[in-house]
Amino acid sequence: MMKNPELARQMRALRTVNHYTQQQIADLLNIDRTTYTSYEISKNTPDIMLLDAFARIFHVNVDFILHIDTQNVDALCDEIETYVADNKEPSYSLVSQLDKDERTLIAAYRLLSDEDKEKVRELAKRCNPLQSKE
C-alpha cells in the first residue's frame, strides 16, 4: 500500500486523545508494536481489515478516521472536555475518562462478534453488584 502521512497522523491523534499506548493498540490488533509504530510514522499503511479493527476499538467508522482533523488535536481534546462539562449525567462512554484496564476491556469488547458481545453482557449482568437481585 502507498504511504499515507495524513492517515498516520490521524491514527496517532485518535490513539493519543484516548490515552492509549502504541503497545496497547498493537496488542488489541494482535500485531507487533513495531508494526503499529510503522503505521504512525507512515512507513507502512495498514490494510483495510486492520484499519476497520482499529476503528472499532474507538467505536468510530473508517470514514471518520480518514477525515478526522489532525491539524488541531488540541481542538479535539477541547471538544471532549466541553462534552464532559456540559453533560449533567455521568458519562460512561468517554474512553478518555477510563483507566488503562477499562479502556483495554472496552476496546477488546468492540472487536468481538455480536454473539460474543451478548455473552459478555449477560455475564456482566450476573456479576454486577449494583444491579438489584430479583
Secondary-structure element order, N to C: HHHHHHHH
> How helix-rich are the residues, as a percent range?
55-70%
In angstroms, what separates the terminal alpha carbons?
55 Å
Given as residue ranges, the uncertain stretches (5+ residues, pLDDT < 50) are: none
Structure commentary:
The chain is mainly α. The protein has one domain (5-127): 434 Repressor (Amino-terminal Domain) (Orthogonal Bundle), CATH 1.10.260. It is 63% helix and 0% strand. The protein contains eight helices and no strands. The protein has helices spanning 5-17, 22-29, 33-40, 48-57, 62-67, 73-86, 100-110, 114-127. The longest helix is centred in the middle third of the chain and has 14 residues, at 73-86. The chain is globular and about 50 Å long. The mean pLDDT is 79.
How do the helices and strands line up, and which of them pair or pack?
Elements: H1 5-17, H2 22-29, H3 33-40, H4 48-57, H5 62-67, H6 73-86, H7 100-110, H8 114-127
Identify the notable features of this structure and list them briefly:
434 Repressor (Amino-terminal Domain), 0% strand, single chain, 134 residues, mainly alpha, 8 helices
Task: Give a concise summary.
By secondary structure, the chain is mainly α. 63% of the residues lie in helices and 0% in strands.
